[in-house]
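Let's practice the habit of predicting before peeking. Look at the sequence and jot down your guess about where helices and strands might fall. Then scroll down.
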Amino acid sequence: MSQELPTTSYAVLGLLTFGDELTGYELKQRADSTLRFYWVAPAMSQIYSELARLTDQGLVQPTTSAGAGRRTTTYRITDAGRSALADWIAESRAGFPVLKHSVLLRLLIGHVGEPERIRAMLEEYVAELAVARADLREVRKALRGSDGPGEVFHYPSVVADWGLDYFAAEARHTRKALDRLSAATGRQEP
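Done guessing? Here is the structure:
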């Protein structure tokens, strides 16, 4: 049976499953470079509070070393942590993602704003999607060579491909919305 932990705890545990020990700072960097594409990357303070929780429950093992005039603590997932993570994956419902889409929220109530500003917001979003997609392409490229079935980055590569498709679909839907807004005002989009 999976333990009662917040999803962020499981995300932190998951970030520790790639065979290396990480400091809290390195965990934050890994979260920022991976989770940001499909989950909220936790704040630095949240990383440390999750590490404390996971340490208290025996799910991660801290190791402190001294060197270069400072102490460094790294964390690794324990067998109990791997078991808890596997239980969570096996036992939790797929669930429907909670979508917090600020662009769609503003579009929903777009009648309150100026049509030009709504179009500009959608155009900005298409540009942001292009940047996110380029960033994720670089992440995906970095996974090549270790992304075959049974290899450590196989599942992350599946997630990266899903994310690339998602961003492409978001851009397509946003352009369709721009076309509909332009048709309603008789304006042609570039």
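How did you do? The first strand starts at residue 60 and ends at 67.
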